[in-house]
Amino acid sequence: MDVEQAEPLTGDARHNEKMKKKQAAHDKIMADKTRNKGLLIVHTGKGKGKTSAALGMVTRAIGHGMKVGVVQFVKGAWETGEKKVFDAFPDLIEFKPMGEGFTWDTQDRAADIASARKAWDEVKRMIADPSYAMVLADELNIVLRYDYLPLDEVLAVLAAKPEMTHVIVTGRNAPDALIDAADLVTEMTMVKHPFRSGVKAQAGIEY
């Protein structure tokens, strides 16, 4: 007696079966993901969006009622749209632009080092304060690249951060040791940029 063969799945039925298998695989992967911890997050690479992505996380944290500290090492000379938005949430965010502009603008290494140290002291203060759930050190990688701060000191502070505090570090050329220490690393890759076509930095896009 011939065994009746099942009809092959087609169209929606095939898609639904595929999604069921994906859901089962996803559930299996997620089953042992049960703990929370404060993350060390690094956004680096030559592409645009490192600070923008970090500030998106800041916005998300504020939406959950979390207190956030933001220190900007380089871009403090700019009047940014984000600062104007965050000013509406004074109880949830401390936003401190502390840079003097890019190194080619200042042309004063001693002043750049002093500015970096002052900004880093603020980052350390925020990390040590348990009321901050998240701290963003924007463009910290830039000052590390130019040796304005000792890498070993930065790594030591990050390693000793409170267990549940999230710390985000942005900027090109993240040091290998920082990448190794991080929980989450994203590298932004530039494919196209309007600057190369003569388009200047624009409000709402770059700042």
Uncertain runs: none
How many structural domains can be distinguished in the coordinates? 1
Within the largest sheet, what's the order of strands? 3-2-4-5-1-6
* Helical amount: 40-55%
Determine the CATH superfamily. P-loop containing nucleotide triphosphate hydrolases
CATH C-level category = Alpha Beta
Q: What is the fold-level CATH name, i.e. the topology?
A: Rossmann fold
Number of strands: 6
SS-derived structural category: alpha/beta
Total helices: the number is 8
| Separation of the first and last Cα atoms | 75 Å
Mean pLDDT: 88
The general outline is: globular
Strand content: 5-15%
Q: Main β-sheet: number of strands, strand sense, barrel status? A: 6 strands, parallel
CATH architectural designation: 3-Layer(aba) Sandwich
Question: Overview of this structure, please?
Answer:
The protein has one domain (about 40-195): Rossmann fold, CATH 3.40.50.300. About 40% of the residues lie in helices and about 15% in strands. The chain contains 8 helices and 6 strands, in the order H-E-H-E-H-E-H-H-E-H-H-E-H-E. The chain has a 6-stranded parallel beta sheet with strand order 3-2-4-5-1-6, with helices on both faces. Strand 2 (about 70), helix 3 (about 80-85) and strand 3 form a beta-alpha-beta unit. The longest helix has 20 residues, at about 10-30.
